[in-house]
Predict the 3D structure of the following.
Amino acid sequence: MNVLENWYCSTSFWRWMTRARLLPWLLGSSDLGEHLLEIGAGAGAATAELRKRVPHVTSLEYDPVAVVRLAQKNGTGAGVVQGDAAALPFADRTFSSAVAVLVLHHLRSREAQDRTFAEVRRVLQPGGRFFAFEISEGWFNRLIHTNSTFVPVQPDALAARLTSAGFAAVTLDPRPGGFRFTASRSA
Ligand SMILES: C[S@@+](CC[C@H](N)C(=O)[O-])C[C@H]1O[C@@H](n2cnc3c(N)ncnc32)[C@H](O)[C@@H]1O
């Protein structure tokens, strides 16, 4: 993450956008179950809102500094865990649902993204659903990721990649500049 991204993801504007626009679009009225995994929580733009919707939320974040800040913000025992999305530190079938907002393009390679898909499937309960929002390939998105990681996920290949990771019922919904997708771990 570069300085611009760190700043933007911490703003009250992005928190508002996430709460008022992004999560309603991404999640709709879906039943998220009892225990949701938030992947790449960052500064926590989605965390408080997810906690209103689901009894238990575990927020995973790779950056140790962000982990400490998020845990401080949310109080001790708040379910903030340091770890890598591509090697999730959780037992099989722990979660009823999983959410990743603007995280996959920050993984270092396509292989790391595929490992993440397989890991998310592993930790989901049968029937559990994975929801993600990603930005598209394009000069503007490359520019704002200067000195950062940007491995865009190609929407065309996504259904095949998720299916080979063991997901079913993949949905993909493109919008200008980005797209959401959902996928289910087969029951
Ligand atoms: C653009 S930020 C999005 C943060 C938050 N989801 C939001 O919407 O504000 C991407 C986040 O993914 C985290 N991240 C990057 N690689 C990761 C990995 N391998 N495992 C878990 N989190 C990762 C970054 O540290 C960063 O906090």
Summary: The chain has one domain: 3-185. DSSP finds seven helices and seven strands in the chain. The helical segments are 3-9, 12-27, 47-53, 64-74, 110-123, 139-144, 155-164. The mean pLDDT is 94.
